[in-house]
Write a structure and sequence with these properties.
By secondary structure, the chain is of the alpha/beta class. It contains 9 helices and 6 strands. The chain has helices spanning 54-60, 64-70, 74-90, 100-113, 128-135, 145-151, 162-179, 181-184, 188-210, and strands spanning 8-15, 25-33, 40-47, 72-73, 95-96, 125-126. Strands 4-3-2-1-5-6 form a 6-stranded mixed sheet, with helices on both faces. Helix 4 (100-113) links the parallel strand 5 and strand 6. Helix 5 (128-135) packs across helix 9 (188-210). The chain is globular, with a radius of gyration of 17 Å. The N and C termini lie far apart (44 Å).
Length: 234
């Protein structure tokens, strides 16, 4: 059985912004699907403990007022998210995350912020963003999740909600496994290693492009987690 026809676990965060070092989780979803088993999902609405910028609220629909009124305390929610993913990892199911470098790094920083143990290292990750750029390198246009869903004919539902995006990422990964036989033939550990190389090449290429206008532009090459260096991510 190929990895894409076995059990997959989608993971997605909606947050207060795009800075993995300082921004916070607002909503999260961990959803297991496929493999001939029922879909099982868990979602969180989090009070991040900081104001949610208007621009971020327009994307995911969660205002500061709603998060404070209905959300779980951040430390409690982050602990539950880590526990849910930890169970998935322990069972050998790969985590599917669109642009995993962002979601997994931000979760890592939230864990450290609240004095919690981060996820273990080197568990299998499937990143549709990295895979799409590797297998359809010269296709023009945006490669956001909504664009990949349109390209691979996957329904996304309520885009920019964590639950819709998590299941959509799994469906895109499944479609890609169907479309690209070479991709489907990878063992999970081999696929993880290959994505690390592809992600590094993609980041280096993007950095070279951005430096045409901004010589200081920097794109981290590490994947799926940017190493923790700063001690002041508070």
């Amino acid at each position: 059985m190929s990895w894409h026809t076995d059990r997959l676990c989608g993971f997605d965060l909606e947050t207060t912004g795009v800075d993995v070092e300082r921004d916070r989780i607002v909503t999260a979803c961990v959803v297991q699907c496929g493999g001939g088993q029922p879909t099982a999902s868990a979602t969180w609405l989090v009070d991040p403990g900081v104001d949610i910028p208007e621009q971020a609220a327009k994307v995911h629909g969660i205002t500061t007022e709603r998060a404070r009124a209905e959300g779980q305390p951040a430390a409690e929610a982050v602990g539950e998210i880590l526990a849910a993913l930890g169970q998935v990892i322990a069972s050998g199911v790969p985590v599917v995350a669109m642009n995993a470098r962002y979601d997994l790094t931000l979760l890592d920083r939230e864990a450290r912020r609240h004095g919690l143990d981060p996820l273990p290292a080197d568990f299998p990750v499937v990143d549709p963003y990295v895979l799409d750029k590797a297998y359809d390198r010269y296709r023009r246009g945006s490669r956001k999740l909504v664009d990949l869903c349109a390209h691979y004919q996957v329904p996304i539902g309520d885009a920019h909600s964590a639950d819709a995006d998590a299941i959509a990422a799994c469906r895109v990964a499944w479609r890609m496994g169907q479309r690209f036989p070479q991709l489907a033939q990878y063992e999970l550990h081999e696929l993880h290693s290959a994505q690390r190389g592809w992600a590094a090449e993609q980041a280096a290429s993007l950095q070279e492009y951005l430096r045409r206008k901004d010589p200081a532009a920097h794109c981290p090459t590490e994947w799926p987690l940017i190493p923790h260096q700063r001690e002041d991510a508070s």
